[in-house]
Fold these 2 entries.
Entry 1:
Amino acid sequence: MGLVLLWAGRRAPAMLLGMFGYQCNATDGKARLGRLRTPHGEVETPMFMPVGTAGSVKGVTPDQLVAAGARMILGNTYHLMLRPGAQTVARLGGLHRVMAWDGPILTDSGGYQIFSLAHMRKLSADGVTFQSHIDGSAVELTPAKAVLIQRLLGADVIMQLDECPPGQADRDTVAAAVERSARWAKLCREAWLAKRGQEPFTCEPCHSAQGSYQALFGIQQGGVHADLRAASAAALVELDLPGYAVGGVSVGEGHEALRDVLDATDGQLPHDRPRYLMGVGEPRDIIAAVVRGIDMFDCVLPTRNGRNAQAFTWQGRVRLRNARHAEDAAPVDETCDCYTCRHYSRGVLRHLFMAKEMLGPTLVTIHNLHFFSTLMIAIRQAISAGTLQADAEGWLAAIYDNDDTDDPESALDQ
Amino acid sequence: MGLVLLWAGRRAPAMLLGMFGYQCNATDGKARLGRLRTPHGEVETPMFMPVGTAGSVKGVTPDQLVAAGARMILGNTYHLMLRPGAQTVARLGGLHRVMAWDGPILTDSGGYQIFSLAHMRKLSADGVTFQSHIDGSAVELTPAKAVLIQRLLGADVIMQLDECPPGQADRDTVAAAVERSARWAKLCREAWLAKRGQEPFTCEPCHSAQGSYQALFGIQQGGVHADLRAASAAALVELDLPGYAVGGVSVGEGHEALRDVLDATDGQLPHDRPRYLMGVGEPRDIIAAVVRGIDMFDCVLPTRNGRNAQAFTWQGRVRLRNARHAEDAAPVDETCDCYTCRHYSRGVLRHLFMAKEMLGPTLVTIHNLHFFSTLMIAIRQAISAGTLQADAEGWLAAIYDNDDTDDPESALDQ
């Protein structure tokens, strides 16, 4: 009876079979259909995580997130450590409580934002010192501190501190970043193992001992250099971590370079661990990466573009501020059953943006998140049916041949 | 069988018994417990309408509005006629479709905003010309045009065009406004009767012939002058309109003046019609007005203050930006069961405002709308029990003795 009850709960398998794990259930070429088990429930892979930068996926409530199909979300350590601060998040019950989200959460380590957002970086073998973009104060982040902060936040998956050089960095810079990131991975692992099993607080939404297990992922660097990628992967695999991320491929290399990197790193990351491509979200990049064996994605694209009135559809992107939508009583996508498409027309959405009504960004964000969930469902179904390559060609032709936007690439960084 | 099915629908009584009506079911002193019947359903009174200025109650979806207890909402003709325009609203399916709201809607006539927002007003006996605050173009509004525009919008209750002088206006100005508003009421009624029964479009959310009946309300003016109020009421009552509003008492007179005006106008408006106090929303003003026989209210207070991090509670207002809430894991109101209080702490809400996250304004707006709905439910229950005076004294002491704000009055016009 007790066993039956335990199994009936959504977190029961994680408790009985281990707090974290990845299981691959089917393949289609190198594409993998699997499940990620976390203390806050299981998630089917390949999957996409909406980004909740500073403790909130901008403009949408957790109920709206779930309705839009989100199952696991991401929080940014960089933003949260500066405001409200990791200690404050812990005192408020941890990141799950702060985000009112009882599903799995992943936090990045702060590395990416430090190398892209912060001013006055000073890099050493031990860590990085930077100036807060909020109050200008000097902040130091070390591998151990990155783990400690993420422990206070309490996410299910935490990331090592890494150095993420820009896409146009020269080979020497990338090589140094690979070496430094490998050393930091080792230090992160030591801090993680030292804290493992300790319980800093109880996770309020699920009443489980959250923080008692967090999965630490390593991050492969190496830019577009196959040998550096290989060296990075080898150093990480030696650490036997619960999961591995491919980093440094969403910093401006473009679609071709992304495919080249993933082709070059083929086989470098272990088959029995989840593989996470950080910061990648353009549908064609997601599909290209799934085809090359990636399981997890995150990107600000659906939320940021949603706030800019740009909607994703299976027939290409739609710029809702365009005057031709002014009296269009049709929804963004006739085939979409998201809240926005069930209730609002293109004309109304355009009006909400022209009138600067907060509801416009919220509604198009909901639609875009639903599109990304639907894309991942379609991808999983195609892997299951063994038809991913053929299906994906059809999707990509429809999406990119009809694009309403002037320059799809530029939209990435709006 | 057909009859049973008709009665089962929420709009069946309105269709069978007449498209619009007010019924008083109980009284407690002058306070009235009643029901307002409209083509889009019935609403219990006294009731409060959230304001959906430009086609959206700022930051909240219709689902969130319903969950927060809203049953009837208000749209601003002034804003909608300028953007996206009444014809565009009609082409997009009418205001119910634009707001994705299948409950009753009331639109004001635009008069209030013209006299408070617009520049370069030119007033004549026939109407008013003003400069659009959006593109600077000259716009003319006449009584007939105000009715035509509201017909295109398609609300259930429409308001006459009136002149609303500022609170500090001298007696001559107020007397002229009373005279002009009475003449405009007559012209609005003529335009309304000429169009009655015609169907400009079908209401998409409810598939009923919306616009086939709209209830026209007259607006009493007269400032703080009892004789002018009496003259205004007499002119309106002669027109035998479906409902009457008390105008010009939310323009800075203060709580005492509001009570004096309502005491002075006691008995001037007919007992068998709904009475609507325009723009009033401070809880003590709502209670004072209900005690004096008012049935309907609208105000931007819950939404505007929500966007400014100010939460209404039964223990007074709470300024959520205050540093003392930073690590407070308790909800805004322990006794509140709104979405926000069930999922978020004061500390999290403060963080969302400090980080300028859109979700902060949305969540506190939801809480405030829920507070106003709960206040109106409590008022209706007290009228039903015959205990309004005593109950209200307790509520007001708790609300205003504990107020967290420096100056409650100033918050009205933030």
Note: Residues 21-299 of chain A form a domain with the TIM Barrel fold (CATH 3.20.20.105).
Entry 2:
Amino acid sequence: MQVSVEICVIPMGTDASVSRYVAECQRVLEAAGLQPQMHAYGTNVEGDWETVFAAVKRCHEAVHEAGAPRIFTTLKVGTRTDKQQTLQDKVEAVNKLRRQ
Amino acid sequence: MQVSVEICVIPMGTDASVSRYVAECQRVLEAAGLQPQMHAYGTNVEGDWETVFAAVKRCHEAVHEAGAPRIFTTLKVGTRTDKQQTLQDKVEAVNKLRRQ
Amino acid sequence: MQVSVEICVIPMGTDASVSRYVAECQRVLEAAGLQPQMHAYGTNVEGDWETVFAAVKRCHEAVHEAGAPRIFTTLKVGTRTDKQQTLQDKVEAVNKLRRQ
Amino acid sequence: MQVSVEICVIPMGTDASVSRYVAECQRVLEAAGLQPQMHAYGTNVEGDWETVFAAVKRCHEAVHEAGAPRIFTTLKVGTRTDKQQTLQDKVEAVNKLRRQ
């Protein structure tokens, strides 16, 4: 099952600046062979369900190892059976309508 | 790794009333040996990471099998290394402060 | 416009234990005349759009005043034009199916 | 109070393809003078609290007017008192660490 996911990892019990923890997650997602698309409120990835969620788990492990005692993560998880659709397809579908 | 998760499954491309899909998820979560705590905006579960996320995947499979061509799920995922804390502990910690 | 909302306020740059900040939000939501339904991953409220979102803003103000330098909040926001539906109706619709 | 927000509007009771509803929201956010940064799982905006949340309400109104009987929206809402930080600053802080 193919899945597209947005992951947003919030370390708790740390400084207010959390970029170094987010950078750890980027490394994990890239090491998993995913091509993370980071934006200001999370990172979008797509791939096989098992691959993606194994990487999500490793993100939690990496952020704890980096010193965060608590993590609150939000995920958006999308699957569909009616057609294949990439992350890029989603953005392009809206942009195409905007150009009309 | 123990994890506490809120899952909120939104079927897309279906009728506006989605309670029968949510009921499918409740069955899946119970069959996984989790004790789902449903509320008006999702269902809270806790347990071993692998058990919980295997159940999340089966929720997607069950909701597609029930007829939804597309699913948008939001998850909140909590882990901590500083102490053990159950879902009930979280609620009780706030209620205790309110009673003071 | 009537709206049902789940609010989950995460203080950042604080201790890992955040119950006292959540308790502040409960006070704000009650003071707004809402009847907050707290669970382990947020609090559900319903009411007029303006009333609910004014209370959300006051939650942010109260949590900053309580000492959190940064706040990350997740909201789920539901509106519908096909019928009126309370938070309790949502839960009951699923439970009714489960009892059949 | 300055706020940065991610908005992700999910129409329910519609076709599985929802790009035309998302395009409506983009128009609303632009008309509000915000500079929406769309990605595959939502749109990021920043500005004055009142301006941003008035636009969120108009998104709901516009998507209902476009024919969706039910809407489920997720928002991430960020405020901080320790420093000013734009959406672009957030991304850049992580990228800077990655380049080291």
Note: Strands of chain D lie at 2-12, 37-39, 42-48, 70-80.
